[in-house]
Amino acid sequence: MPGVDKTVLITGARAPVALHLARLLDAAGRRVILADTPTRPIATASKACARYHRLPPPRFEPGAYAEAVEALVRAESIELVIPTCEEVFYLALAWRERPMRAQLFAPGIEQLAEVHNKHAFIRLAQRLGLAVPETTLLKSRDDLEAVRSHWRNLVFKPVWSRFASHVLLRPTPDFLDAIAPSPATPWVAQRFVDGDEISAYAVARAGKLKALALYRSLYRAGKGAGIFFERVEDRAARELVERIVAGTSWTGQISFDLMRETGGRVLPLECNPRAVSGLHFFRDPVRFADAVLEGGPEIIPDVIAPQTVRLAMWIYGLPAALRSGGLGRFRKAMRQGQELLDWPGDPAPVKAQWTALSEIAGAAWRQGISLQAASTRDIEWNGPADCY
Asked: In the CATH scheme, what is the code of domain 1-106+347-388?
């Protein structure tokens, strides 16, 4: 088997996708090292984790983070580093500035920043010949005033953000008074697109698509991250992803928020150059590792059942169902959804999520922020000002 016993470092161990990726690669014969900032992130409880290393918080200590990763790569003889969350930006900076001995499975910082920027990404898609929703960059109060009268048809969001944080969906003018766009903290005003949301998770090598999962989120943590996922098939969405991957010669993981209009046209809304929950629709370790790491043929998802985190459904999904009168729909989802943390012979992470959650909850309480904000605060990348 190609690549057997090669050592891989997976960062962002707090994320369920990091756990899933570790299980896939471990089952395919790789030695998997995990790293992140928390004390006991969920993936460390897995049998797939050969060793866990705590790192400094990259957002607040980028220099120390880069030094720690460089030392870890040497100490564990790492050959490949696979980011899963927004630490990818800090790793890309470290790879640009230091002679790292391992390969980083991600593009350079300039390309990462371009697609993460919600205005620059739309311009990129437009240059590649794709239809896009009208998107205006807002860098001042004057820019905001120029579009204020069109609020009924617009969505406002920070250029650098994630999980729909701070998104204002067709806000009334009084809500717009709270926005203060500037060159350092720009926003975009994007045409509201009515239709069906589609999320895309892809892996590519040198512009060639190696894995793609299209899905929709039926339940979310608030208005942001999905917690219950159902697969979809859409030819236009696939073609869109292929065009972007090929046009950027992308290597690494990349994800998209798309919208399918009633006429069938699919428009790109934004891009996340990292792993997202579509990864959970792949469970064949050998085929996944061969396609993604060894340049083998593209693979299609091999999981049919909806994927969910039951704990998150109880915390977020049940209250939402009670508020909306959708308790029957919630019960049906809980019956049909497959716990994405389950894995044959590896039960510990299901229980470990309580320990991981308590650490995040403690940070949220101390900092006076939400659970979701606390879960990413130390790895967020909010534009060049965070690094340069």
From this structure: 3.40.50.20
